[in-house]
Inverse folding.
């Protein structure tokens, strides 16, 4: 795929390779910032233990152990919630990080 030729019409001056690379890097940066904003918005929602584990790069067992540790349990219904014993555990990532 030739981005250089597809990016410009016949009447525009083509960008140099350095300018084109800079433009691509700027677009990547903008996309990364947008993704970061979306992830921050999502962090204040309840997500599954499995999804939390993926985002935190930890195993679900490690997070379960951390939130339900009898010696130092994180705040139930604030950091984590579970309808009944054996039911799915949901995590609020924003609160989880605050209580670490």
């Amino acid at each position: 795929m030739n981005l250089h030729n597809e990016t410009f019409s016949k009447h525009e001056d083509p960008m140099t390779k350095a300018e084109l690379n800079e433009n691509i890097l700027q677009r990547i940066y903008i996309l990364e910032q947008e993704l970061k904003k979306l992830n921050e918005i999502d962090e204040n929602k309840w997500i599954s233990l499995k999804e939390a584990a993926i985002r935190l790069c930890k195993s679900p067992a490690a997070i379960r152990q951390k939130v339900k540790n009898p010696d130092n349990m994180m705040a139930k219904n604030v950091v984590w919630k579970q309808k009944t014993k054996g039911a799915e555990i949901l995590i609020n990532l924003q609160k989880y990080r605050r209580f670490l």
Summary: The chain has two domains: 15-44, 46-99.
